[in-house]
Design brief:
By secondary structure, this protein is α/β, with parallel strands linked by helices. It contains ten helices and seven strands. A hairpin with a 2-residue loop joins strand 3 and strand 4. About 4% of the residues have low confidence.
């Protein structure tokens, strides 16, 4: 399968980094908020870029409502990838190395990783005691930027895609960055970054043509907009 112009137009090898929630999968904590009717759990990194502060607030809410980790995993196990995400990821990985850089937690998002075909994912860990989340173990204070810079030190040219504030350092560090369906507060603030609304537009932005997307029977997989 030939590389598309964006993926091939360089003497360097390319590598694509993708955020998880809001790009390939639903927002986990919004699903938890819906399941347990927790209005004070509805803030995400689209609202507050301070991730540690946001997570400690979430842990406080879980503690007050006596919600156990196993109950949260049940919610996550019922989530499915965003429309077109599996086909998009499969076809992209046929063309270029892809790494998911996420601020989720490996124990929490394991069911989502499985539904996406176990992509290489770098994320954080939770501290769990007696089936309760008590703390978080952040892998790095700015892990997405650090990962991009590490790939660049290996002579990769990085294309990064994310949807929110906690993706900006990754997008800025990459040679090419793109926002997908960002909050209104981010629109127009970073005009040098690409801007798309869903995976279909992202596929076009990357140059994944109809021919590139054709499956074994010659049909183009559906890449619907977000629900």
């Amino acid at each position: 399968m030939p590389l598309t112009p964006l993926l091939a137009d360089s003497a360097k090898q390319k590598l694509v980094t993708l955020d998880l929630e809001g790009v390939l999968a639903p927002e986990i904590w919004l699903a938890v908020a819906d399941r347990f009717e927790l209005d004070d759990m509805r803030m995400t990194t689209r609202d507050d870029p301070d991730y540690r502060k946001l997570m400690m607030q979430r842990i406080g809410v879980l503690t007050r409502h006596d919600i156990r980790f196993s109950q949260i995993v049940e919610v996550v196990s019922g989530l499915v990838p965003l429309p077109g995400a599996v086909a998009f990821l499969d076809r992209l990985r046929c063309q270029v190395p892809v790494v998911v850089l996420s601020d989720t937690f490996e124990q929490l998002a394991a069911p989502i990783f499985a539904s996406l075909g176990q992509p290489v994912t770098l994320c954080h860990r939770l501290c769990i005691e007696d089936d309760r989340i008590v703390d978080i173990m952040l892998r790095h204070e700015d892990p997405k930027r650090a990962a991009v810079q590490a790939f660049q030190s290996l002579n990769y040219e990085v294309i990064a895609v994310g949807d929110s504030y906690n993706d900006l350092s990754m997008l800025e560090a990459a040679e090419i960055g793109c926002l997908i369906h960002p909050p209104d507060s981010l629109r127009g603030t970073h005009p040098h970054l690409g801007l798309v609304e869903d995976l279909s537009e992202l596929a076009t932005w990357l140059g994944l043509t109809t021919e590139t997307w054709a499956d074994d029977e010659g049909a183009q997989p559906a890449l619907n907009s977000r629900p």
